[in-house]
Design goal:
About 35% of the residues lie in helices and about 20% in strands. The protein is an alpha+beta fold. It has two domains: about 15-175, 3-Layer(aba) Sandwich (Cytidine Deaminase, domain 2), CATH 3.40.140.10; about 215-240 and about 245-334, Arc Repressor Mutant, subunit A (Orthogonal Bundle), CATH 1.10.10. The relative contact order is 0.10.
Length: about 325
C-alpha cells in the first residue's frame, strides 16, 4: 500500500493574546488590599534597610514579591526578593524566591493554598511581569488554583495596579502576516522580529546595514547632501508618542521602471513644478563633486533602501527617518 498523500498546508501564523486588568486601589477586594498593604510595608522596609548592592550587581534590577496564601482560612504573606550572585549559575527571581520561602515556612502547604502574588520594582520602571521561568512555575500553581493571579503596579505609589490573567486566547491566521510584523527584517544572527525602522538588531545589537566601505562613504555623502544642502527641514517627522515613523515609499520605483516610464514621470513632475530624480542628481553633484553616474546610481540605491522617498502628494524627495537613523549610526561607528 502506498502511504496517503497529505496535502501541503500554507504557512500559519498563530497569534496569542494575553489580558491585563487595570484597577484602582479603592476598587480592590479586601484580600487584594491586604496584599498591597504588605507590599507597601515591604517596599518601605527595603528603602530603609539600604541593602548591599552586591546581591544585584549584575543588572542592578531589584524586584520585590509578596505571596498571598490562605492557610486554614487565614490570610498570610511571604516575602521574596531577587538575587544575582552569578549569571552563569542563574539568578533567582523574586517570585520563585517567595514560592520557595512559602514551602520552607509551611511544610504542608498545597498549591490550592496560593491566592496571588504581587511584584514591584522599587527603584526601576513599573509594571514588570514574570520572566519565562517564573511564568512556568505560576502555570503549575494555576493547575491546582485557577484563580491565582499576578499583580503588578503602574508606579511605586501602588495606587493603580495591573492584574495579569494567564488565560490566553490563540487565534490562527492563515496566509496572513500580522500587521505589526510586516516589514520586519531578519538579522544574520537569525532574529526575525526587528522592526523596519531599526538599524540595530534587538537580539545581537549588530548594525543592520553592512556595505562595502567605499559604497557606505558615498551613500553617507549623498544622504548628507539631500538632507543638509537641499532640504534641511524635510526629514520625515517622528510621531509624538515616541514610536518610530514608518517609511514612506517613493511614488516611482526607479530600479524597475523602464526608461520610457521614467521619462514620462520626469515630464509629469516638471509640468507641476516638482523636483525629479535627474534634477536632484544634478544638485547633489554640485554639492558633493561626485560623478553624475555614481550619484544617480547611489540615489536609486537610497530609494530602494527607503533612505529617501517622495511622500504621496509631495513635490520633493525627502530623507526618511530610516535614512536619518542610518546617518546617525554611521557617525557613531566612525
Amino acid at each position: 500500500m502506498h502511504p496517503a498523500v497529505v496535502a501541503a498546508k500554507p504557512p500559519t501564523w498563530r497569534v496569542t493574546k494575553e489580558y491585563w486588568l487595570l484597577r484602582q486601589y479603592q476598587d480592590l477586594p479586601e484580600d487584594t488590599k491586604f496584599l498591597v498593604g504588605h507590599m507597601r510595608q515591604f517596599a518601605q522596609d527595603y528603602q530603609a534597610a539600604k541593602p548591599d548592592t552586591y546581591w544585584h550587581r549584575k543588572s542592578g534590577q531589584v524586584v520585590l514579591a509578596v505571596l498571598l496564601l490562605r492557610i486554614h482560612g487565614k490570610l498570610q504573606t511571604v516575602r521574596g526578593i531577587n538575587s544575582e550572585l552569578s549569571l552563569p549559575s542563574g539568578s533567582v527571581c523574586a517570585e520563585r524566591a517567595a514560592i520557595a520561602a512559602a514551602l520552607a515556612q509551611h511544610l504542608s502547604i498545597a498549591r490550592s493554598d496560593f491566592v496571588s502574588i504581587a511584584v514591584l520594582a522599587p527603584n526601576n520602571a513599573n509594571p514588570i511581569k514574570p520572566c519565562g521561568v517564573c511564568s512556568e512555575w505560576i502555570k503549575k500553581i494555576e493547575e491546582a488554583c485557577p484563580t491565582f493571579s499576578v499583580i503588578t503596579f503602574t508606579s511605586t505609589a501602588m495606587d493603580e495596579l495591573l492584574e495579569y490573567s494567564s488565560v490566553t486566547v490563540s487565534e490562527e491566521v492563515i496566509d496572513h502576516v500580522p500587521d505589526h510584523l510586516k516589514g520586519n527584517w531578519i538579522c544574520k544572527c537569525g532574529f526575525q522580529l526587528n522592526r523596519a525602522q531599526q538599524v540595530y538588531c534587538s537580539h545581537c545589537k549588530q548594525f543592520r546595514f553592512r556595505f562595502k566601505s567605499h559604497l557606505q562613504q558615498t551613500r553617507v555623502l549623498v544622504l548628507k547632501a539631500v538632507k543638509h544642502e537641499n532640504y534641511p527641514n524635510a526629514e520625515t517627522p517622528r510621531p509624538s508618542n515616541g514610536l518610530e515613523a514608518s517609511p514612506v515609499p517613493p511614488t516611482t520605483n526607479w530600479l524597475t521602471a523602464s526608461d520610457e516610464e521614467a521619462s514620462e514621470e520626469v515630464r509629469r513632475t516638471r509640468r507641476r513644478g516638482s523636483l525629479d530624480l535627474s534634477q536632484l542628481c544634478q544638485q547633489v553633484v554640485e554639492a558633493t563633486g561626485l560623478a553624475e553616474e555614481v550619484t544617480l546610481k547611489t540615489l536609486k540605491d537610497l530609494l530602494s533602501l527607503q533612505f529617501i522617498a517622495r511622500p504621496e502628494g509631495s513635490c520633493e524627495f525627502q530623507i526618511t527617518s530610516l535614512g536619518s537613523d542610518f546617518l546617525e549610526a554611521t557617525q557613531r561607528l566612525a
